[in-house]
Amino acid sequence: MRIEITDEYVEVRLAPWQRLLGLMRDIRVARDDISEVRVVVEPVREAMRAGIKVGLRVPWLCFVARTITLDEAFVVRRGVPGLSFAVENGGRLRRVLVSTPEADELARRLQRDA
């Protein structure tokens, strides 16, 4: 999984196995539609609290899944901080949480440019 940030978009590009087992596509959100950016220290714990999910779920290890209502997406693994952001574009997706070692840096970048 890679997170790419441009002047216009934030894109979460999943590995082929993540797309297949997580039953998800890559996620692309316009920068203008992003708010509530924050770093999550224990993203797996937060994913586990989010209710029923579809996709790859290995409790306490990793999640590549969406909630059953499709309003939250998780690509998280244990021991790696998460980047969380809200999506405000009128679509079904309302929040994204992804694990990345660069979560602090990416959160600062998204907050600074907001």
In short:
This protein is α+β, with helices and mostly antiparallel strands.
Can you offer a commentary on this structure?
With 114 residues, the chain is of the alpha+beta class. It has one domain. Helix content is 20%, strand content 43%. The chain contains three helices and nine strands, in the order ββαββαβββββα. Strands 4-8-9-7-6-5 form a six-stranded mixed sheet. The protein has a three-stranded antiparallel sheet with strand order 1-2-3, with no helix packed on it. It starts with a strand and ends with a helix.
Quaternary status of these chains? single chain
Helix-strand topology string:
EEHEEHEEEEEH
Principal-axis shape equals globular
End-to-end Cα distance, whole Å, is: 24 Å
Please give the order of strands in the largest beta sheet: 4-8-9-7-6-5
Can you tell me the number of structural domains? 1
Q: Please state the average pLDDT score.
A: 94
Q: Radius of gyration, Cα only, in angstroms? A: 13 Å
Strand content: 35-45%
Fraction in helix: 10-25%
**What is the total tally of β strands?**
9
Number of helices: 3
Task: Characterize the largest beta sheet: strand count, sense, and whether it forms a barrel.
Answer: 6 strands, mixed
- The SS-based structural class is alpha+beta
Q: Uncertain regions: pLDDT < 50 for 5+ in a row?
A: none
